[in-house]
Amino acid sequence: MVHLVTRGIKISVETTYEGSFYRDYKIQYAFGYTVTIENQSQDAVQLNSRHWEIYDALNNIEIVNGEGVIGKTPIIQPGESHTYNSGCLLSSPFGAMKGFYNMLNFTTSRIFKVTIPTFKLEAPFAIN
């Protein structure tokens, strides 16, 4: 599990390998990840949008931008957290993800970025 705190918002990520399958005659490796967003600040915040950079070992990069996470724009009060599960597909058994969330601070009415730490995606059978 990886953790990173940005401006009082702690991001923790845990990953799982879900398996592989063929799609359009190409093998795909499925990974799941669980993200916990913990508000350690003194202000209520809302997650408005996300930006992901998804890398695989074949030098493919996928950029994903969107509103909220899994269809939600959660408001997180001080001392509370929000956890969600999602996933991605890679063309190789190794990869990584990183990114950021745009959050609204309700006290200051300002948008700020919260860094999502780089985390590895690894199929256990391919690890030395």
TrEMBL record:
Protein encoded by which gene: apaG
What's the domain of life for this entry? Bacteria
List the source organism: Aestuariibaculum sediminum
Q: Name the PANTHER family on file.
A: OS05G0170800 PROTEIN
Instruction: Write down the SUPFAM superfamilies for this protein, in alphabetical order.
Output: ApaG-like
**Domain called ApaG: residue spans:** 3-128
Kindly provide the name given to this protein in its UniProt entry. Co2+/Mg2+ efflux protein ApaG
- Which InterPro entries would you find in this protein's record? ApaG-like (IPR050718), ApaG_domain (IPR007474), ApaG_sf (IPR036767)
